[in-house]
């Protein structure tokens, strides 16, 4: 046990002291937030208000555009040929004389790149103008106003009920997105840190360091110490992320969101929110109610740690066996498909299953140890019975014992083999050695 602890300590301290670990751990949440908001910020910084010149041959559309502009429109009587030669006019639209009867009689001209958003707004405005003109010709009165008055905007407040009948605010979309985010974290950590185990063993094997180390420690103990030490690095990173998010929710989010929004959040949680007086969209409030709950955040990250430990131990033991069986990274890359394919399948199923987390397929894949970490983490934010979670974890951790027992036999033989890449048949034969 002391030898295993020494290996764990060495693998752990060697990696957490690296600048790369500190950099990714502290700045990764910031980078992820920046990537989420960068498109909106860049769009706001780089966008310029562009004047759209309108040539309305019918004379029926331009009055509506002038009265209800979504874009800065400029009306002109100049012919299209003159505007084509005027380099100061970047974008102009020519509307045909029979636009009311023939809505396709519209041509947009632009210099340089065309904006999809601008085209969509122009199309929408012209459609509204045609509809308004047709209603006026039918002499039905202000039908548009009547339709707006009878239009109903239903707001659904989603509440999740537990086995005791207690209610809590929920959001299906938010639960789905949180589940997919947790699944991607598991996918990234299992692949990244699993390959780290394999590469570390290959490097030590090529340097003949393993031959010296195994004189004072059993190969199986060495493999366990290496896997647990590197796995502890992954768990440390996840725990730090959870603490950073909790600190953001506690101290920064109230200042950013404002007191009024948090007052509505408190009313929503208490069930006293009046839809008639609220100033914030109910969907946004439900999202904020979930993401601003420390108990929700810690429970999600708690499950993430449990399935991360289980999934990593399962796959890292396979990576360790592969690393001990080969002499270089190229040969290891050919064999690690046995690890990567199940993880990718788990990720792919999770994206689909997250939309229907209570399906029979979701329950089945949650019990298969090679896919259960990803699939179960995609389901948990939407609400999964505690019995299913316990059963999934029990099967996963029981499978780990069998997988480690199998891969340890390959490891103890493989670390002394050089010069030949083993076949699957040879790996099975190694596992049978006593």
What's the main sheet like? 4 strands, mixed
Rg, nearest Å: 31 Å
Order of helices and strands: HHEHEHEEHHEEHHHHHHHHHHHH
Number of DSSP-assigned strands: 6
Query: What is the percent of helical residues?
Result: 55-70%
Characterize this entry briefly.
By secondary structure, this protein is mainly alpha-helical.
Task: Describe the secondary structure blueprint for this structure.
Elements: H1 2-16, H2 19-46, E1 52-56, H3 62-67, E2 73-75, H4 80-85, E3 91-95, E4 106-110, H5 116-138, H6 143-150, E5 159-161, E6 167-169, H7 172-206, H8 209-213, H9 219-257, H10 259-270, H11 282-291, H12 294-325, H13 329-335, H14 337-353, H15 360-365, H16 372-379, H17 386-414, H18 424-432
Parallel strand pairs: 1-2, 1-3
Antiparallel strand pairs: 3-4, 5-6
Helix pairs in contact: 1-9, 2-9, 7-9, 7-12, 7-14, 7-16, 9-12, 9-17, 10-11, 12-16, 12-17, 14-16, 17-18
Describe the structure.
With 434 residues, the protein is mainly α. It has 18 helices and 6 strands. The protein has helices at 2-16, 19-46, 62-67, 80-85, 116-138, 143-150, 172-206, 209-213, 219-257, 259-270, 282-291, 294-325, 329-335, 337-353, 360-365, 372-379, 386-414, 424-432; strands at 52-56, 73-75, 91-95, 106-110, 159-161, 167-169. The strands form 2 sheets. The protein has a 4-stranded mixed sheet with strand order 2-1-3-4. Helix 7 (172-206) packs antiparallel against helix 9 and helix 17 crosses helix 18 (424-432). 29% of the residues are buried.
């Amino acid at each position: 046990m002391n030898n295993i602890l020494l290996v764990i300590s060495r693998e752990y301290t060697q990696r957490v002291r690296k600048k790369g670990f500190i950099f990714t751990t502290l700045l990764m949440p910031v980078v992820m937030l920046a990537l989420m908001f960068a498109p909106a910020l860049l769009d706001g910084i780089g966008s310029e208000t562009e004047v759209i010149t309108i040539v309305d041959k019918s004379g029926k559309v331009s009055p509506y555009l002038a009265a209800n502009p979504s874009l800065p429109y400029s009306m002109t009587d100049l012919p299209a040929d003159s505007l084509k030669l005027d380099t100061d006019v970047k974008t102009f639209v020519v509307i045909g004389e029979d636009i009311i009867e023939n809505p396709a009689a519209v041509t947009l001209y632009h210099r340089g790149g065309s904006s999809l958003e601008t085209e969509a707004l122009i199309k929408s405005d012209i459609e509204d103008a045609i509809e308004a003109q047709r209603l006026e010709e039918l002499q039905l009165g202000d039908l548009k106003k009547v339709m707006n008055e009878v239009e109903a905007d239903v707001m659904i407040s989603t509440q999740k009920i537990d086995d005791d009948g207690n209610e809590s605010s929920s959001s299906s979309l938010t639960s789905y997105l949180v589940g997919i985010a947790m699944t991607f974290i598991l996918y990234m950590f299992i692949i990244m840190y699993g390959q780290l185990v394999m590469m570390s063993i290959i490097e030590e094997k090529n340097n003949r360091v393993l031959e010296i180390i195994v004189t004072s420690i059993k190969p199986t103990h060495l493999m366990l110490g290496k896997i647990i030490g590197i796995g502890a690095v992954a768990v440390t990173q996840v725990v730090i992320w959870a603490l950073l998010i909790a600190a953001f929710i506690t101290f920064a989010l109230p200042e950013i969101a404002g007191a009024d929004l948090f007052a509505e959040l408190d009313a929503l949680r208490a069930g006293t929110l009046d839809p008639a007086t609220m100033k914030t969209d109910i969907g946004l409030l439900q999202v904020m109610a979930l993401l601003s709950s420390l108990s929700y955040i810690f429970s999600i990250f708690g499950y993430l740690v449990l399935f991360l430990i289980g999934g990593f131990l399962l796959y890292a033991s396979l990576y360790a066996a592969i690393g001990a069986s080969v002499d270089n990274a190229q040969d290891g890359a050919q064999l690690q498909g046995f690890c990567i394919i199940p993880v990718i399948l788990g990720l792919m199923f999770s994206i689909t299953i997250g939309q229907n987390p209570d399906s029979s397929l979701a329950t089945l894949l949650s019990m298969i140890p090679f896919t259960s970490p990803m699939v179960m983490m995609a389901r948990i934010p939407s609400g999964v019975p505690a019995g299913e979670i316990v059963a999934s974890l029990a099967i996963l951790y029981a499978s780990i014992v069998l997988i480690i027992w199998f891969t340890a036999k390959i490891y103890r033989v493989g670390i002394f083999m050089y010069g030949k890449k083993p076949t699957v048949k040879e790996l099975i034969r190694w596992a049978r050695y006593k």
